[in-house]
Structures are given as structure tokens and as C-alpha cells.
Amino acid sequence: MSKTITQFVCANCGYISPSYLGRCPNCGEWNTFTEETKSKSDSTSGAKTRVSLHGNRVTPQLITEVDAQDAPRYQIQSAELNRVLGGGIVPGSLVLIGGDPGIGKSTLLLQVSGQLAMLGKRVLYVTGEESADQVKMRSDRLHITTNERVYVFPETDMTAVRDAIADLKPDVVIVDSVQTMQEGDVDSAIGSVSQVRGVTTDLMGIAKTNNITVFIVGHVTKGGALAGPKTLEHMVDTVLYFEGDKHHSYRLLRAVKNRFGSTNELGIFEMADQGLQEVQNPSEIFLEERLQNATGSAIVVAMEGTRPILVELQALITPSVFGNAQRTATGVDRNRVSLIMAVLEKRAGLLLQNQDAYVKAAGGVKLNEPALDLAMAVSIASSYENISTNPRECYVGELGLTGEVRRVDRIEQRIREAAKLGFVRILVPKHSLEGLTVPIGIEVVGVTTLKEALQLALPK
Asked: What are the binding positions for ATP in this chain (predicted)?
């Protein structure tokens, strides 16, 4: 005997309400509730228990009796993806990849399928958005030759997917995308909060009980966040965001959650005719179009995870036409720009309150770390004073509100990256020089105050 229950679910956080609400009391978002019907059996005892493909049920056991198998990671050809994942693909992990439509998610995963097949792994590519012919056409365009180990399954029913996994026993399963999959036990529309949560729970059980690595593709909202409830990101082991500008060929793969490695790692790819190509030295790309003797330009050595990247920060300071001066930022935090300009006015004597400021991180990259402060201040002062910086000099340091230059982490890695690209001098916090080994060919200058740094960077 079963009965039907009508409930309203928030599409943003998954909050369940018996009646429609204009604003979610849990996350505060407006107009996110959708109506769902759910069949509830009086004899149902609860959720399903995890059962492996071999029929073995998961039972409680002492932690001392757990056989922790240190399985080696799958080291594929893509060094960028290996680093973002923390050193390779972990067997039995659940990885979620999100990004804008057409950014290259399916292309990347199809290339990963070919590279895994070269390692002798069996891959099941489940596509709910494309036909098998479309996947084959992309495979031919990408010149994937190891097709004998890659199986394509155009299906949206999770029952059929589970049966296919039980028959093939693959090492890796790719689901493109999770919003197109349907769980038969959940009585709601495809792509709804209940369906997405149910499908992800099912895939998580398959991954953990059978040691199968599962990649799932997730759609994103207009704001750039993953569509569906936030619990989706909490359920998976790794969350990767595929970012990029439609007007540029470069794509950034960023890890925002990783249970098996460092977060905030960054991989850089270039979209070419034959798929996504790795960018071995992104610093050269970000600096290759820099003008010589240009004012308002300063180079910073930023850290993206464990990777140092040299990026040009550009600033344009112009007199304000209207009453309130504008503060515009691209690739950096706008509030940080306002803070740096306030410190420059108070501690360095620059009259910036009646000046419009436009600050940009060149190359389309997004940066957010305290080590940008010194380079940002130098670029703003350079544009205001109309004095160009040394093109072979870079700047690293955090600024305090009293005008001091504070220490930053991984200073030695930053200096080595600057020396490798031919920079002859770098300004760093003086307190970061303790126990530092300076590489040959670069001068490391320690500064303690912003005023001292500006005198060295912009000699009059």
C-alpha cells in the first residue's frame, strides 16, 4: 500500500517544505521552490543498503580490521589533470566536473577515456545528452585510437546503467551529465533536486563498494555555480570547475575540493582543433604581449595551489569626471583595489580620492591572494605618477593598513619561477628572507614599508 506525498524542494539547497514558499528559509534565495510528488510505501523500511556488484553487503567492522589497500593512482598522459587531482586519478573516487556549456567538459573526459584505455583500463562512457554517433565523431576528431577499451552507452535510466556496470565491470565510469540521468525509485522530473541527489547517491555507492572511479559532469547556473543542491558538492570526493572565456582559447581547470590532494590547484589547457592541449608554461603566455616601458604595469608571482604563475597586473588611473570616483576590477577583488588605494593615499601621499581606477589581471586569469597587494600598489602608483616600471622586475608581498609589507608563503618557489623566466630583480617582504636560498641570476630585495618599495620600483 502506497500513498503520494506532494512537497516543495528548494533547487538551491534542497530544503523541503510541505507548502510553497517565495523565499527559502534555509539559504535565503527567492523563487527556488519546485513542486515534486513522491510515492511512499507503508512497508518501506528506509533507504537501500550498499551492495557491491558481487552481491556482498557492507557490514560494520572494527577499524583495526579494515584492510586499507593503498592502490596506486592512475597516471594518465595529461600532467595538468594529474596535478589538479592531487597526483593522478584515485581508484574508487567520485569526481564532479562543472563548467559553462561548450567549455570543453565532454572533450576533456573523452580524451581522458582514451588515455585511460592506453593504460589498459576499461572505460564506460555514459552519455545522456548525445547519441553514440556524436561521441564517435568527436572521438575521430580527437584521434583517439584505443577505442577497443572505451564503451559508449547512450542511456538516461540508472537501472540500465547499473546493469551495464555489472556486466562490463569497468575500471572507470563517466556520466555526462548527472542532470540527464533518471532514478526509477524517485518520482520526480529529470534534473530535479531529488533526481540529482538520488543519482549521485547511487553513483557514490557504486564507486565506493566496487572501487570504480566515477566522473560525473554537472551543469552550472547563470551565476557559474553547479546546478542542483549544495549537498551534491558535499557528497563527491573532488569538485573541479572548468573555466574559460569564450573570446580566448585558454581553459582553466580549478580544484575547489579534493579529499586526495591540495585544493585550489590550477591546470591550464588550450582549445585546439584536435582537442584540449596542455599549456606547459602559462607564465610565458600571460606575459608575451606585455609592452615595454608601459606605465601602470607590474608583474606579480602568484600561487595557484602549488604552482607559481607570473601575471601582469595593469592599472589605469584617470581624473574622475563625476563626483564619486569609480573603482573597476577585472580578475582581482574590487574591494582589495579600494583598500590598496586607501593605503597608498594615507601612507604614500598619493591623492587618489578624485581619480578613477581600472585594475586588471591580464590574460583572463582570476587571482585572489594577499601576495598581490604590493604589485597592485606599484601598478597603481606607476599609472598615477606616469613612471614605467622595470620590465625585468617583479613584486610579491602583502600590505598592511599601516603601510608595512608583510610576509607571504612559498617565497622561494616564487623567486625560482621569476629567475627561470629571466627576471633580474624581485621585491619581497624583508621578513621572508630568513633562511632563504637565492638562485643565481636574480637579485632579491627585501622591503619593510610601502614607501620604501615605491622608491625602489619607481625611481624619479
From this structure: 99-106
The C-alpha atoms of residue 399 and residue 247 are separated, in whole angstroms, by 34
3-state secondary structure of 438: coil
**CA dihedral sign, ordered 130, 131, 137, 140:** positive
Q: From the annotation, which residues make up the binding site? A: 99-106
pTM of the predicted protein model: 0.74
Question: Residue 346: CB partners within 8 Å, gap ≥ 6?
Answer: 403
pLDDT in tens, 251-303: 888 888 899 888 777 888 888 888 889 887 788 777 877 888 889 999 999 98
At 230 the pLDDT is: 66
- Kindly state the percentage of the chain with pLDDT values over 70: 90
Distance (Å, rounded) from C-alpha 321 to C-alpha 311?
Answer: 30
Four-point Cα dihedral 85, 88, 91, 93, nearest 10:
0
In the annotated binding site for ATP, the residues are 99-106
Mean local confidence (pLDDT), 60-76:
79
Quote the CA–CA distance of 180 and 175 in Å, as a whole number: 9
What is the H or E stretch that residue 356 is in? strand 355-361
Dig out the grid coordinates for 94 from the structure. 567520485
137-177 tens-digit pLDDT? 998 888 887 668 999 999 999 999 999 999 999 999 999 98
- The upper half-sphere exposure of residue 87, i.e. CA atoms within 13 Å in the direction of its Cβ, equals 9
d(CA 161, CA 141): 27
Residue 103 to residue 97: CA distance in whole angstroms: 11
Q: How far apart are CA 96 and CA 85, in angstroms?
A: 11
> Distances from the Cα of 196 to the Cαs of 155, 233, 246, 460, in angstroms?
16, 11, 28, 62
Q: Quick one: which H or E segment has residue 255?
A: strand 250-258
Q: Round to whole Å and give the CA distance between 40 and 3.
A: 5
